[in-house]
Design goal:
Strand content: 15-25%
CATH architecture of the largest domain: Alpha-Beta Complex
Structural class: alpha/beta
Low-confidence stretches: none
Distance between the termini: 43 Å
CATH topology of the largest domain: Spore Coat Polysaccharide Biosynthesis Protein SpsA, Chain A
Number of helices: 7
Mean pLDDT: 90
Radius of gyration: 22 Å
Shape: globular
Largest sheet: 9 strands, mixed
Number of strands: 19
Helix content: 10-25%
Length: 377
């Protein structure tokens, strides 16, 4: 993080053995990983990239430090996470080497901030919906959350479906949960800039585990009219791309409003289900806007990201930023379960969306079991 528009040139100190001096390499690239323009009035996120020198190019360092000069003592050290080959978690089933691999899909979520809000019911349903859609793992960052939300997170960590990391905002930004809530609403550009840190950290931290990583917030669920699972959608997208590789596939966001009443087919569902009880949206299609789409990243290419697209890649000079394969909503989109429709839904045509109801019984059983286990009933 820096308030300088062009940070000083730095050196990487690559630690392979704590008993020996580090191997040094000059920073080769500095990328501003923010879709917003540079502004010295806020802390700006930058991604520093160092190549491994030839003598150690076959090794993986255990840690790396940034220093202004090769032999200047560094005041930082970052553990290196990853490997040279993707783990078995990247594949659905076993990779046999004969057929095209079936790729798993993971999800990187946000840094949760539900301190004064008991979001536990909706969090459980969101996670179980993603699981029912074939998501292999969900990665979340955690600031300060309500006790029941923490209880839910600990359950899913023990279950192995969720992995969390603690997150705090860098100085001078506030970390008291109440003050932070005010700051988020008063200075959104600074907050959005900070989001790029944990979004980019998440995809980079887990790119060796999963080739395809989507970003969804807890009020967003993929809607798959033609596919049973997200891995099935990704496989179809790869087949239909005719050999072309895209850094990300963009799913349009369509609001499914909070104030829509349950339709006949879901009125018998219990009130602790939110996504399943909301099945109506506006019928019209107002086009594709980048800020109203959510990505599935291909980590063969992507490096720095924000909430709606990527900002930097490898081997795509001048063609990376915001370059997504736009997916037709008839194939897949993201239901954004948020907002008030009000009179608009009375004046305009609406339609019923039932694609996510194919998981109805699976989600209902799973959510009920978790709520009973955690005594949230």
């Amino acid at each position: 993080m820096s308030q300088r528009e062009n940070p000083d040139s730095m050196w990487c100190q690559l630690w392979f053995d704590a008993r020996n001096a580090p191997v040094v390499a000059r920073v080769a690239d500095v990328d501003h990983i923010d879709y917003q323009g540079k502004d010295p009035g806020r802390q700006m996120p930058f991604l520093f990239t160092c190549p491994l020198p030839a003598p150690v190019a076959h090794l993986v360092p255990s840690a790396v430090s940034l220093a202004p000069l090769p032999c200047r003592p560094a005041g930082n050290a970052l553990k290196v996470v990853g490997s040279r080959e993707r783990a078995s978690s990247a594949f659905v089933g076993e990779k046999d080497g004969k057929n095209s691999p079936a790729w798993s899909v993971a999800v990187c979520g946000p840094a949760l901030y539900y301190y004064n809000e008991d979001f536990s019911d909706r969090l459980i349903e969101w996670l179980e919906t993603l699981r029912a859609m074939g998501v292999a793992k969900v990665f979340l960052y955690e600031t300060d959350v309500a006790p029941k939300v923490s209880q839910v997170l600990r359950h899913y960590e023990a279950d192995g479906f969720v992995r969390t990391l603690p997150y705090s905002y860098p100085p001078p930004y506030p970390n008291h949960p109440v003050t932070r809530w005010i700051w988020r609403h008063l200075e959104p550009t600074k907050m959005f800039s900070q989001e790029n840190i944990f979004f980019s950290d998440c995809v980079l931290r887990h790119m060796h585990e999963y080739r395809f990583i989507a970003h969804f917030d807890p009020d967003e669920v993929p809607i798959l009219p033609r596919h049973e699972s997200l891995p099935g959608l990704v496989a179809d997208l790869l087949r239909s791309s005719s050999g072309s590789i895209y850094p990300a596939y963009g799913l349009k966001m369509i609001n499914i409003y909070d104030d829509s009443l349950p339709t006949e087919e879901v009125r018998d569902l219990p009130p602790f289900l939110w996504v399943l009880r909301h099945t109506t949206r506006l019928k019209y299609d107002d086009g594709y806007l980048l800020g109203h789409a959510k990505p599935i990243f291909d980590m063969d290419l992507v490096r720095g990201v924000f909430s709606h697209a990527q900002v930097t890649c490898v081997n795509m000079s001048g063609m990376c930023s915001n370059f997504l394969k736009r997916i037709r909503p008839t194939l897949a989109y993201v239901g954004h379960f948020k907002g008030i429709c009000g009179e608009t839904c009375h004046k305009k045509k609406i339609r019923t969306e039932t694609a996510h109801l194919r998981y109805r019984e699976t989600i209902l059983r799973a959510v009920t079991a978790v709520r009973e286990k955690l005594q949230l009933t």
